[in-house]
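User: Here's a structure from my thesis project, written as structure tokens. My advisor, Dr. K., wants to see whether a designed sequence matches the one we expressed. Can you design one independently, without my sequence as a hint?
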């Protein structure tokens, strides 16, 4: 069987619809052709979120978003406690809850809020960078998990003769849950900033055309 990705042409592996390379990417990024959003790519959007925060320090939104994070952490603790006391629980939801709690132990909430806001903002400006909703959600989970070293392991690189840092992946269904929870909680921030920027752009455009029009009428 040939890989289901158009023009790939390689053979599928096992029962997968994809060749090994596309299979890995599908598992890791939620789509066989999605590549990971890098820290560098996200930088301008993150800067935009941070500027907005600095300009609006007195706005209650930041506290409200942090409270939302605390609620999410709390509900994960409750879920885990239920599971530990023998209640039926989904294996993936248990793992996703542990991920959230681990993030809470190692990362400041504001950093998580900013990264999720930045990714949503990035998607608004460059929708084609994300090949599906699922691929987007995966990127949210990846970039947030990358905020802490806990999710990085080391492996010995024989060719370079030294230890190499590698990102420790979580199962796709766990990544999807984590990404979904984070996007639901903080995605609105990115949408709101995008709306503001669009409006500003529109006003500038209007001013430019007004000037053009006025220039034409000069005599
Ligand atoms: Zn392929």
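Assistant: Designed independently from the structure alone:
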């Amino acid at each position: 069987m040939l890989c289901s990705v158009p023009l790939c042409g390689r053979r599928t592996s096992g029962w997968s619809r994809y060749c090994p390379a596309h299979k890995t990417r599908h598992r890791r990024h939620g789509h066989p052709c999605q590549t990971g959003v890098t820290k560098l790519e996200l930088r301008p959007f993150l800067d935009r979120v941070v500027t907005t925060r600095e300009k609006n320090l007195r706005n209650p939104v930041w506290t409200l978003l942090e409270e939302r994070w605390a609620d999410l952490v709390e509900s994960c603790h409750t879920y885990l406690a239920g599971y530990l006391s023998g209640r039926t629980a989904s294996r993936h939801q248990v793992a996703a809850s542990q991920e959230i709690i681990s993030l809470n132990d190692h990362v400041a909430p504001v950093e998580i809020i900013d990264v999720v806001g930045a990714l949503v903002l990035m998607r608004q400006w460059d929708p084609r960078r994300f090949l599906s909703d699922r691929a987007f959600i995966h990127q949210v989970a990846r970039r947030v998990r990358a905020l802490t070293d806990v999710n990085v392991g080391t492996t010995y690189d024989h060719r370079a003769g030294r230890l190499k840092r590698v990102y420790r992946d979580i199962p796709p269904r766990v990544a999807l849950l984590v990404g979904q929870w984070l996007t639901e909680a903080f995605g609105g921030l990115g949408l709101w900033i995008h709306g503001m920027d669009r409006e500003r752009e529109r006003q500038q455009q209007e001013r430019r055309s007004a000037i053009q029009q006025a220039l034409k009428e000069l005599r």
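When you compare it with your expressed construct, this may help: The beta strands are 152-157, 162-167.
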